[in-house]
Amino acid sequence: MTRLLASVMSAAEAALALDGGADIIDLKNPAAGALGALPPAVLGACVAAVGGRRPVSATVGDLPLDPPRVAEAVARTAATGVGIVKIGLFDGDLPGCIRALKQRRGRPARLVAVLFADRAPDLSVLEPLAEAGFLGAMIDTADKAAGPLLRHMDLPALAAFVERARALGLLTGLAGSLRLDDVPALAALRPDYLGFRGALCGTRGRSGALDPRALAAVRRALGAYRPSAATATAGAQ
């Protein structure tokens, strides 16, 4: 069953997401970009609020792929106690970053790479990510003003991503201004998780506060949707 990743920006929101049934608590600052980073003190407070009851992920920020800078950001983020560190595949030296991060294999925090649907993602990067020991990969959007995920990649393209990543042993996630009514089509592709922020904030947008009622609606939609094999096949076509 596809799980719910809820992006939060404070310890109070982390507690709300936990109580609301989120499967993964994702820490980021929506006001600072697609993968805006929160201060280490806030990350630590969120980790304490979750108390090990759910996996916690955190982003390192919208950073160019400069190996020393990315490696330092990953180490700083992991030191706060989060279990998963998310890295956006922005412009820069991706092979160099992969080499630098490969040395972290076996460290407590696992790595997830974020590809961007609105930047023509190259799925061939999945193989070196898997070889470097990444836990997973996800598709998101870099420019939130440019529209939601399905405006940039259609269902067959997203299905190809999920299939290819899963074949490599990577966890898979889909995000990018997802709405409640996106759940049936995207859950039919059977990614490991769907990531939400704006849809969990009601009418206030992704930089507003988490709305427990909106979170409950998304939780119900995911919990109720269990695609049959036929439905999953149809969704990928």
Strand order of the largest sheet: 1-2-3-4-5-6-7-8
Through-space gap between termini: 20 Å
Pattern of helices and strands: EHEHEHEHEHEHHEHEHH
Globular, elongated, flat, extended or rod-shaped: what is the shape? globular
Total helices: the number is: 10
Strand content: 15-25%
| Biggest sheet architecture | 8 strands, parallel, barrel
Provide an overview of this structure.
The chain is an alpha/beta fold and 237 residues long. 38% of the residues lie in helices and 16% in strands. It has 10 helices and 8 strands. The chain has an 8-stranded parallel beta barrel with strand order 1-2-3-4-5-6-7-8, surrounded by 5 helices. Helix 4 (94-102) links the parallel strand 4 and strand 5. It is globular and about 45 Å long. The two termini are 20 Å apart. The model is unreliable at 228-237 (pLDDT under 50).
What labels would you give this structure?
disordered C terminus; 237 residues; single chain; globular; alpha/beta; 38% helix
Topology:
Blueprint: E1 3-8, H1 11-19, E2 24-27, H2 40-50, E3 56-59, H3 67-78, E4 84-88, H4 94-102, E5 110-116, H5 126-131, E6 136-140, H6 149-152, H7 155-167, E7 171-174, H8 183-187, E8 193-196, H9 212-224, H10 229-235
